[in-house]
Design brief:
Length: 582
């Protein structure tokens, strides 16, 4: 009887996908011993957004959280998610920082590090894999699953071979958007197993589109060894398929599943309570637990669709959604078919919107796309269209090698910068990963974590921080027809700030004036205009930081800036007034 194992994601991906990673340690401590005894292949408990959210909202030191979990779970392998050279963020860090981060993750209790790169550029995984192996950890080399003419099973198998030679002890197929169909999954796993029969294959997907259970079964038939699941009350929708259901189905089909069913019942009872609490306070939106097939229609992740809609809404151009949706695959092709995962999904989506609204393709280009075209994100799956690259970066030099090779070592400099504020190397790493957030955290820690006033009830789906899995609802007019559109927030949303007092209430603009409002909750990164200044349509007025991306808010029309309500650093909610143009 062939054995199939499960990874339990409730403390990381399910937590992140359904409740914006808001589960504090104290709330799950009492169930850890049960999870520890349940017999999972591993428990995914750290990395992804957990680190940021601990520092930003939960007043928890993420390192201490990890050590406490380790102490309660000595028998189960603890797993984390790492973005290769980006560690837990979206920029490339120098190698010494990546190595320190990996070494300290293992030192503090991690066994398995799942390492991926948004472009599937294995050079961005090499250092993290190497350091994991050196520290006695298990490096799970990860393929971001996507479809394109250049993403053939051959290229994926080639990637598996590269990752194996780098030291990966298993391969994870990561289907971020839940768009991998059962037969496609079967064929891909079979191709990998054909080439590397001994290499354990782990499958990660989300239930968003409803394919997940079917896809998992076909993966197992093709030889997959481990499946990512979440205990039932925290499963489904934007989370993973249910652990107990999967175990039942696998046993029904004759596979061996060594899970303790009693422990699963105890876990399910416990997390029913957690779910009820988060439903009650509105952080968990029931819609995010339901099936949404829109990703299948558009072939783009849900989080990306909501981004597109939100940007068009900002520009008063939601009637051009059809054009933007048609432009999206063209931009992706121009840029060499990047997998659509954060941050490339936001980058491609924003560019598609700019191309449609500017009336000329690549007339307006965001700074991330410029860096991407200079090779700073890594090697693209296919070459970037040379003419478009030339148009975007001109004669700027293109990074040929690994971008991190051009970065100065960063750990000692950050340590010196922090001085006595840092009590240990882990503090320095928190600071490097999230400088402002960590600085605020250290201050709070110094002050003994003064009770922060609880944020007022968030205006759900409007001004609330977009909890991962939460939805955006709009009625869209396309060619005279009305469509109800729902987008589901994807993986990156945990970085969105919690509801905080809005910078300025949106007042009705006077006649002849245009109010430029915040398209989404976030914070004001930069104000690029001042009262009295003449602006042209498309000029960037304010840069927001939302979902870890810089979002440029542009003038919808030409005119003179009457007043500027936005101020750098201020938190803004959807529809808060930023600038008035007269
Ligand atoms: Co995931």
């Amino acid at each position: 009887m062939r054995k199939v194992q499960l990874t339990e994601t409730v403390l990381r991906d399910a937590n992140q996908s359904l409740i914006a990673t808001r589960l504090p340690y104290d709330k799950f401590e009492s169930i850890l011993e049960t999870i520890n005894k349940a017999g999972f292949y591993s428990a995914e408990v750290w990395g992804g957004a957990t680190f940021d959210v601990c520092l930003r909202y939960l007043q928890e030191d993420p390192w201490e959280r990890l050590r406490k979990i380790r102490a309660k779970m000595p028998d189960t392998k603890l797993q984390m998610l790492l973005r290769g050279q980006n560690i837990l963020g979206y920029k490339h860090y120098p190698d010494d920082v990546v190595r320190k981060f990996v070494a300290h993750s293992i030192k503090n209790g991690i066994d398995i590090i799942r390492i991926f790169d948004a472009l599937n550029d294995v050079r961005n995984l090499e250092v993290a894999i190497d350091e994991t192996v050196k520290n006695g950890g298990h490096a799970s080399g990860t393929i971001c699953y996507t479809t394109s003419p250049v993403h053939t099973h051959e290229t994926f198998v080639g990637m598996v071979k590269d990752l194996k030679s780098m030291g990966a002890a298993s391969i994870c197929i990561k289907d971020m958007a839940g768009i991998m169909g059962p037969q496609e999954a079967y064929n891909l796993v079979a191709a990998i197993k054909d080439a590397e029969p001994e290499m354990p294959v782990v499958i990660h997907t989300h239930s968003t589109t409803g394919l997940a259970f079917m896809t998992y079964l076909k993966c197992v038939e093709a030889g997959a060894d481990v499946l990512d699941c979440a205990i039932s009350p925290m499963s489904g929708g934007t989370s993973q398929p249910a652990t107990e259901t999967m175990a039942f189905a696998l046993r029904d089909m004759g596979y061996q599943v060594d899970l303790d069913d009693k422990a699963l019942v105890t876990m399910a009872d416990f997390f029913k309570g957690v779910r009820a609490d988060f439903l009650k306070d509105g952080v968990l939106d029931p819609i995010s637990m339901a099936t949404d097939t829109q990703c299948l229609n558009y072939q783009i992740p849900g989080g990306m669709l909501s981004n597109l809609i939100s940007q068009l809404k900002q520009m008063n151009a939601i009637d051009r959604l059809d054009e933007a949706l048609a432009e999206t695959p063209k931009v992706r092709k121009d840029l060499g078919y990047p997998p659509l995962v954060t941050p490339t999904s936001q980058m491609v989506g924003s560019q598609a919107v700019q191309n449609v609204l500017a009336g000329e393709r690549y007339k307006v280009v965001g700074k991330e796309i410029k860096a991407y075209c200079r090779g700073e994100y890594g090697r693209t799956p296919a070459p970037i269209d040379p003419e478009i690259q030339k148009k975007i970066v001109g004669n700027a030099p293109i990074v040929e090698g690994r971008f991190a090779d051009s970065l100065e070592p960063g750990f000692e400099a950050a340590k010196a910068e922090l001085g006595a504020t840092a009590t240990c190397d882990e503090d320095v790493l928190s600071y490097i990963a999230f400088p402002q957030v960590a600085t605020a955290f250290f201050k709070d820690r110094e002050a003994g974590f003064p009770k922060k006033e609880a944020p007022k009830t968030e205006k759900k789906t409007e001004s609330a921080a977009p909890a991962v899995g939460s939805t955006f609802n709009y009625v869209v007019n396309v060619n005279g027809n009305q469509y109800a559109v729902t987008g589901v927030v994807g993986d990156a949303a945990a970085a969105a700030p919690a509801a905080v007092p809005a910078a300025a209430p949106a007042a009705a603009p006077a006649a002849g004036e245009t109010a430029v409002k915040s398209p989404m909750p976030g914070s004001v990164a930069k104000v690029l205009c001042s009262a009295g200044q003449a602006v042209n349509a498309g000029d960037v007025l304010v840069v927001l930081e939302a979902m870890k991306m810089e979002i440029e808010v542009s003038a919808p029309c030409a005119g003179t800036v009457k007043s500027v309500a936005a101020s750098a650093g201020a938190a803004v909610a959807t529809d808060d007034l930023l600038v008035t143009i007269g």
